[in-house]
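Private note to self, pasted from the team thread so I don't lose it. Backbone tokens:
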């Protein structure tokens, strides 16, 4: 099954931004059940608005661990992915363990039946607020082969909230992630959460990897720029634009989801 099997004609994948998990600096009162109920409400709102593919991430845990996250974070994410998967109307769920814990993401997928993982730095390296983050493609692919060979891997190319090493072109990073890192699809984002990439960035990646490689817009798509951003991409991951008042900290608004679906 290729990436097209996950997309299956879908143009949008919604993000379930989890509240801080236990042990995170901004952890809130209410415990695990409150976190899970909030995730389920957001998933239901996406389904009501017409998006049935979601990715769950530990968005509230900033500042993020550079590589491996704590066991309690993995456990919470597994519970959240399972809860989201059980939401009526949701067909496909993936997981992104921030900042760059692909090993834990694959473990969660193996335990929960999640169908894809997002890896922020799969090959190469990026300068981030966690320091220099290096890809572990060799480890990640061998782990996938052992645990969950059917789980697909979305790899970011020059991921947001990060700076590439000097001199590296996005075209070369894309080809490396695809051909040497063996990613199933590529993600192109803007510079930060909720910020759209320049359409030229997407076009350059498309030119580098050809017409048959799935490319997903990773941030910033809304009703005003959907047509332009999707001109050279197959789908988009949406979060901020689906929230009440376009505020990433607010709940998902089904009306805004419907508007996004209509726009694409």
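Design output:
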């Amino acid at each position: 099954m290729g990436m097209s099997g996950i997309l299956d004609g879908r143009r949008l994948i919604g993000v379930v931004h989890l509240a801080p998990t236990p042990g995170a600096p901004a952890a809130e009162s209410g415990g695990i059940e409150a976190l899970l109920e909030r995730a389920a409400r957001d998933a239901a709102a996406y389904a009501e608005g017409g998006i049935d593919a979601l990715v769950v991430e530990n968005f509230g845990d900033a500042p993020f661990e550079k590589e491996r996250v704590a066991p309690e974070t993995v456990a919470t994410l597994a519970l959240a992915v399972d809860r989201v998967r059980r939401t009526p109307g949701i067909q496909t769920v993936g997981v992104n363990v921030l900042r760059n814990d692909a090993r834990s993401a694959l473990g969660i997928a193996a335990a929960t039946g999640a169908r894809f993982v997002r890896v922020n730095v799969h090959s190469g390296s990026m300068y981030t607020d966690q320091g220099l983050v290096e890809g572990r493609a060799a480890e990640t692919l061998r782990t996938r082969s052992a645990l969950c060979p059917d789980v697909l891997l979305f790899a970011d190319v020059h991921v947001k909230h990060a700076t590439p090493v000097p001199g590296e072109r996005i075209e070369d990073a894309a080809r490396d992630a695809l051909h040497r890192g063996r990613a199933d699809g590529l993600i192109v984002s803007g510079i930060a959460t909720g910020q759209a990439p320049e359409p030229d960035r997407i076009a350059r990646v498309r030119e580098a990897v050809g017409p048959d490689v799935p490319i997903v817009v990773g941030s910033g798509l809304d009703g005003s720029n959907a047509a332009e951003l999707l001109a050279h991409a197959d789908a988009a991951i949406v979060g901020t634009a689906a929230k009440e008042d376009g505020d990433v900290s607010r709940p998902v608004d089904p009306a805004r989801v419907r508007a996004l679906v209509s726009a694409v």
